[in-house]
Amino acid sequence: MEILGATTSDAIRLLLSGNTELWSIIGISFSTTLKAMIIATPPAFLLGYLLSAGRFPGRWALISLFNSLLSVPTVVIGLLLYILLSRSGPLGDLKLLFTETAMVLGQIVLAFPVLVAMSLASFKAADRSLWETARTLGASPWRAFATLIYELRYGLAAACIAAYGRIISEVGCSMMIGGNILHHTRNIPTAIALETSRGEFSQGIALGLVLLLLALALNICITYLHRRSEALS
Amino acid sequence: MTTALRTFLSLLLCLPLGVASPLLQADTLRLATTTSTANSGLLEAILPEFQRLTGTEVQVIAVGTGAALRMGRDGDVDVLLVHAPNAEQTFVDLGYGQQRTGVMYNDFVLVGPTSDPAQIRAQPDATSALRQIAERGALFISRGDDSGTHKKEKQLWQLASTAPAGNGYREAGQGMGKVLQISSEMGAYTLTDRGTWLAYANKVDLELLLQGDPRLFNPYSVIQINPQRFPDLNHQAAAAFRQWLVSKPTQQRIADFRINNQPLFVPSATSAAGSLSDLTDRSERKTDLRQFSNSFEANSGSIKRKIEREMAKVGLLVVDQRQVRQAANHFKSPE
Amino acid sequence: MIYTRPAAPDSEDRGPRMIRPRELLLDARQLKKCFGKRPLLAIDSVALYAAEAVLLTGRNGAGKSTLLKILAGLESHDGGSLNYRGVQLNRRQHRNIGGKVIYLHQHPCLFDASVSTNVGYGLNKLPKNQQQQRIAQALAWSGLSHLAPRNAKTLSGGEKQRIALARAWVMQPELLLLDEPTANMDAESRQQTLFLIRRLINEGMGVVLCSHEFKADHRLIQRELHLNAGQLTERMLNPITAQPSPPAHTAPPKQHHLRLTEA
Fold first, then answer.
1. Tens of pLDDT along B31-81?
2. Which terminal residue of chain C, N or C, has fewer Cβ atoms less than 10 Å from its own Cβ?
3. Chain B residues with CB inside 8 Å of A178's CB?
4. pTM to 2 decimals?
């Protein structure tokens, strides 16, 4: 307990003192995950909608594919991407392995199934008359889709938060394809893994605190959104 | 709704979507190295100087030697700094790498709980100590990650002609620091490089129990990737990095790097050999080396020949008699 | 043009309906719709005309809603052809008929926004000031101006249906398809909704109504289409050449009138 107390106060001191290394790690975590979310969300929602409304062959196969991708361990995604992106791999010419872009790519792959599966549930729960009303009032399919997104914003935001929670705390994939390079691909989870193995617990705890606060904030958001969408229906 | 949407969209556009361009990467050098050099803090201490001199940023990927060699083979990194002589030689022989150059060395040590249940403190050398551990069924944590230390450990078990399959043998599959922590928590023995050991000595509940066996010699080499296999790697910076590592000032920096006032590595590059002899005149340097020698608890005479033999065996490019003599001298007790 | 749409939407004080040739709006031939393998609709021919009020009847589950949705371009059909003003529609044109032909759900779906935003949903291509003007007109037309700033989700069922009617009316569609607009409503709401529907018809908007309420009201409805076992049969109730219907502005329901004066 004594160690925990001492290292935690060290950790808070580190955070408050504006330790550049620490804040660079936190910055990398947020910039990669935000980029991944921005890139992954629109196509994922579109696919979620198509899967909920469309009637095409292979639809059920796709739905169960995304549902099973939800539980694929991050290290497996990491391994697959490593093999693909390695200079000797099929996409080696892109020179992406051990770059921030590779991490973003990995996080997109991780977030995508969560976004698809959860938005699919949202779209399915939505009344079909929403879409029909928009279309019959002369809205183009895109405008009707935007309206649908707006109407389902609470459920879809919860999907985003769940996906974000998965990628911000993910260590396996980032470690493998990012390489944990300081100032480039060292994010909060990989740094915690490293600092723990180095025995530098206070740095690890400082970063862990950031993640904890974030998790808390995200959970409050989810609860709030859940209550909002309950109140509406 | 529309204003909120517009704000959101403009925010999106403001966020730079970094797509790595090869042009931007031109001034970075990717170094795959072992956890022992990275975790001990050596690279953090010396690399900023390289960046200052050349403008090239070194990105360090710390993995086991096995993984590092594999990255070199696949062209995923530009240069290697590793410590597994046999594997390195094979790597070069197969044409994956070239310009293998010795940079520095330290040694491996056997550490374990202070109570020393297998009584290895009294053993004359590493192999008999390992035999003792296996016979007593004491806990032993192996790296188990195909790293340089793991390769050395397997080689030692082979030399001890004991299968490392005793009851107490555990493979951790983790970096050196983690393995020291595991050993400490479990009260187990383990083989570690001296650098990591010194960095961790006061964070773990272990004691150095055996050292000085010449078979525990641990040389580090820098290897460039064969440009014919991967022409588009940053070979220019890799060559510059190799030359810089073996240059006089860098070798001096390696020698000056200490933890708890103990040196972790001894520079061993040819070009630095002269400078080492120059430095012996300086009393400050002398005390460093004396300390290092003390910690090796080496006795003069036989150790010199042993090191010579060991260095020749591992086929270091830098086997320079003067250098070996120099190194051996440092192992002697101060006159 | 022989028949012109009223320029100002609220000009309900027109004289009695003029005798005029029927203007073909939407017609379909050999229209087929299946659910899975089960055939639901097999309609030889159906034609809808401008400024005509048609009643669509049929048992529950006969496929009335499906037929209306096909006509509105919200459902695809599995065979046959659909023509708009005599020109055959391809798939894309059929799907994008919304705005000209508007379908109203039995339980209207209002968006999570203010009542005026809802009413103006279909007007997004107009300049802002015109949008405001038209929204105000539509709200006045429906007698619900006082609800303008309210969130549409908080309205009662009757109010929702009337706002939905106003939202369709503001676009001046050529054909309005009303699917059981007064089902499950209390007497007062039903009265007020029916009042608006009568108004629509009297303004000369083409309307297809799927309802039990209008059965007796032969003065408003010109034709009745009956859907049975996927087939459509037709009955003339009030041929347009017959006695014109009386002006619409008879008397609004009492409740409604009170509200209007309150507001």
1. 999 887 887 888 989 999 998 888 888 999 988 888 899 899 988 999 999
2. N
3. none
4. 0.73
